[in-house]
Amino acid sequence: MPQYSINEEFRPIISEIPAPVVPQVVSVPQPGPVIPQATVTYSAPLVNTVPQEPEP
C-alpha cells in the first residue's frame, strides 16, 4: 500500500488511458413533409363483442 504523508492530499489514481468517446446520436429533423412513423386506423371496435341470445 502506498504511504501518504500527513501534509499530502489523497488523490485518486487517474488512469492514463482516456475514456472512449461515444458519439451522441442526435436526430435532426429533415426539411420537407413530415411523415408519421406509423399510422394506425381502426374502423371497428378494438374489443370484439359477440351478441348473446337471451336465454328463454
Task: Walk me through this protein's architecture.
The model has no long low-confidence stretch (mean pLDDT 66). The chain is elongated. The chain has 56 residues and is mostly loops. Helices cover 0% and strands 0% of the residues. It contains no helices and no strands.
Labels describing this entry:
56 residues, 0% helix, little secondary structure
Task: Extract low-pLDDT stretches.
Answer: none
Which descriptor suits the 3D outline?
elongated
Report the span from N to C terminus.
90 Å
Q: Name the helicity range.
A: under 10%
Mean pLDDT: 66
Structural class: little secondary structure
Strand content: under 5%
Number of helices in the DSSP assignment: 0
Oligomerization category of the chains in this entry = single chain
Q: Give the tally of β-strands.
A: 0
Describe the largest sheet: none
Spatial extent as radius of gyration: 33 Å
